[in-house]
Write a structure and sequence with these properties.
Number of strands of chain A: 2
Oligomer: heterodimer
Distance between the termini of chain B: 50 Å
Strand order of the largest sheet of chain A: 1-2
Largest sheet of chain A: 2 strands, antiparallel
Low-confidence stretches of chain A: none
Helix content of chain A: over 70%
Mean pLDDT of chain B: 90
Distance between the termini of chain A: 19 Å
Radius of gyration of chain A: 21 Å
CATH architecture of chain B: Orthogonal Bundle
Structural class of chain A: mainly alpha
Largest interface: A-B, 39 and 47 residues
Number of helices of chain A: 22
Structural class of chain B: mainly alpha
Number of strands of chain B: 0
Order of helices and strands of chain A: HHHEEHHHHHHHHHHHHHHHHHHH
Strand content of chain A: under 5%
Largest sheet of chain B: none
Mean pLDDT of chain A: 91
Helix content of chain B: over 70%
Order of helices and strands of chain B: HHH
CATH topology of chain B: Helix Hairpins
Number of helices of chain B: 3
């Protein structure tokens, strides 16, 4: 256990972002041009926090009297959150002018939500999970409706808020019951006595409430009804933030709460996860076929990806933890890439997000078309891209836990999903341009696209680079 | 200590929670839906305080303070969102707020 002052040093990634938020608010108050300074400050903070986490990945301690964990698994999550947020900020710089929200506070909200995610992924006490979750969610409610003059953004924001707060109600009630059954909110205690508690009816009931609340947050069927509307109505860059890093944060909490299961305890919640994952995979893939709006299509694809990741939770072995983390990293980068391209092509007032707007994209901008094709292939899970290995690891872990039927359903649903991903590629390369419009390619967004494309290729061709790091930190 | 059994409090809070959930699912006015969500949070608070009192440790009561703080922050943001939509649409009925299909 490290000494008191050293604890703050180990908590550096969180402190960087927290100090950055205060600094950003001061800049926002004192200068007139905060929208030009804050994006670069945010990117600097995110990159600093990400690399600080990675360099201290072996300094794995539980700090502040068993409240927060640093190093190890949380460090990998911090890397995903911060790099993801940095890429989103990079792609927001020019997009926000087009969207009509050229404000500085957008970046402050992004920083606060990332701080919430970092608190969630390192939580060692249920109180920390709750505080992190709310910090993230409340910022997302505001970000979804950041353009308060636009009715579609208002609607997305309100739906997200009402259903998100509804889910919070379930989570808090679940936590109350878990506390009643265990007498403490420490996760250490929860992990050590998981087997004893799982025969306690109040504990199981509380845990199920907790899981229902988090199923809302990861966007799994049957708690998915907000997802398509919110993802379509919000600003495209906000959607890319909440569909990737937000989902990763919610999964990190589920893995913390189930860490006893992953290290060998019998998984009493397996039927629950098997059901939601089977429903999410098939529902998401089948409904996405009939969508013509790309943002809405990616929302349904996000539901089905939540299903694939939930396979890992149902399997509940150490390999599946590694599989889910790999999948989350791959999914974060390929989805941010796809949404960034949509944000480049998108016109004013939410226009040009239909499939028809992408027809003949190759003639207008070969580099955008090529990277969009790459992201679509990765999301479909075609080797040798990162998406394939994410699915592969999760399916293997399911077979190891005798859940072969779930893995077969997963493969089946991937095959269905290939149809609507490849349709985008067909439109871009083999159809003539339907709508005649100029695409203003922002250099910043293009940089974000290229970085994500490279990451997808590296994780796909050399999956061991990431996988070795992940397996070394989960014991 | 008190002569009222713990079950009474738990049944009351479970009832409050059910009323909250039913209200969210049935009522169509955004403000009323939001009030029902607050009811759910308060039923959880009652459960936490009850367990805290009967288990004889203070963690539950500390948790309640955090839940109340967060609920206040959420109320600020939520009412702001509802006001923003009322300015554009002149209604807070969630059946009429339907550019996207639910």
């Amino acid at each position: 256990m490290p000494q008191n002052n050293y604890e703050y040093f180990l908590l550096m990634p969180q402190l960087i972002i927290a100090v950055g938020i205060v600094l950003s608010v001061l800049i926002e108050i004192t200068t007139k041009k905060s929208e030009q300074i804050l994006p670069w400050l945010s990117i600097a903070l995110f990159v600093a926090a990400a690399f600080d986490s990675v360099f201290n990945i072996n300094q794995n301690f539980v700090l502040f009297g068993g409240m927060i964990e640093v190093g190890g698994k949380p460090a990998i999550f911090n890397f995903i959150f911060n790099i993801g947020a940095a890429l989103v900020v990079l792609s927001s710089i020019d997009y926000l002018k087009k969207y009509g929200t050229y404000y500085g506070e957008y970046y402050i909200l992004v920083q606060s939500s990332v701080l919430g995610m970092m608190v969630m992924s390192g939580a060692k006490d249920i109180l920390m999970i709750f505080m992190g979750l709310e910090l993230m969610s409340i910022c997302f409610y505001v970000l979804a409706g950041i353009n308060r003059k636009k009715l579609s953004a208002n609607e997305a924001s309100m739906k997200y808020f009402l259903l998100g707060a509804f889910a919070t109600g379930f989570i808090v009630y679940g936590i109350a019951l878990i506390y009643g059954a265990t007498g403490t909110t420490s996760i250490q205690n929860l992990v050590e006595n998981f087997v004893t508690y799982s025969s306690n009816i109040i504990f199981v009931l509380g845990f199920v409430f907790f899981l229902i609340g988090f199923s809302f947050k990861i966007a799994a069927v049957p708690f998915h009804m907000w997802v398509p509307d919110v993802y379509q109505g919000s600003a495209t860059t906000v959607t890319s933030l909440m569909s990737t890093t937000g989902k990763a944060a919610a999964f990190s909490v589920l893995m913390i709460m189930l860490s006893a299961v992953f290290s060998g305890a019998s998984n009493v919640f397996r039927p629950y996860f098997a059901t939601i994952s089977a429903l999410s995979m098939l529902f998401g893939s089948i409904v996405a076929i009939s969508q013509t709006n790309l943002k809405r299509m990616l929302a349904y694809s996000s539901i089905s990806h939540a299903g694939y990741m939930a396979i890992g939770l149902a399997a509940g072995n150490l390999f599946s933890v590694a599989g889910i983390i790999f999948y989350l990293a791959a999914y974060a980068f390929m989805n941010i890439g796809a949404f960034t391209i949509i944000s480049i092509v998108e016109g004013e007032n939410d226009s040009k997000t239909d499939l028809n707007s992408f027809a003949g994209l190759n003639a207008k901008s070969p580099i955008l078309a090529a990277s969009m094709a790459l992201f679509m292939f990765a999301l479909a899970g075609i080797p040798p891209l990162a998406g394939f290995f994410g699915k592969y690891y999760v399916f293997i872990s399911a077979i190891q836990s005798n859940l072969t039927w779930l893995a077969i359903l997963g493969v089946l649903s991937s095959v269905i999903s290939v149809y609507f991903y490849i349709r985008v590629v067909v439109f871009m390369y083999f159809k003539g341009s339907v709508e005649d419009f100029e695409i203003q390619i922002s250099p910043y967004s293009l940089t974000a696209v290229i970085i994500t494309a490279l990451l997808i290729l590296v994780f796909g061709i050399l999956p061991d680079t990431l996988m070795n790091v992940i397996t070394s930190v989960i014991r | 200590m008190s002569s009222i059994p713990m079950e009474y409090y738990l049944i009351l809070s479970a009832f409050m929670f059910s009323v909250g959930v039913a209200g969210v699912l049935i009522r169509r006015n955004a403000i009323v839906v939001f009030m029902c969500i607050e009811l759910m949070l308060n039923s959880a608070n009652l459960t936490l305080v009850t367990f805290s009192s009967y288990l004889g440790n203070s963690i539950g009561q500390v948790f309640v303070f955090f839940v109340m703080t967060v609920a206040a922050a959420e109320a600020a943001v939520g009412l702001a969102i509802i006001i923003a939509i009322f300015r554009n649409k002149k209604t807070v009925n969630i059946d009429e707020i339907n550019i996207f299909k639910w």
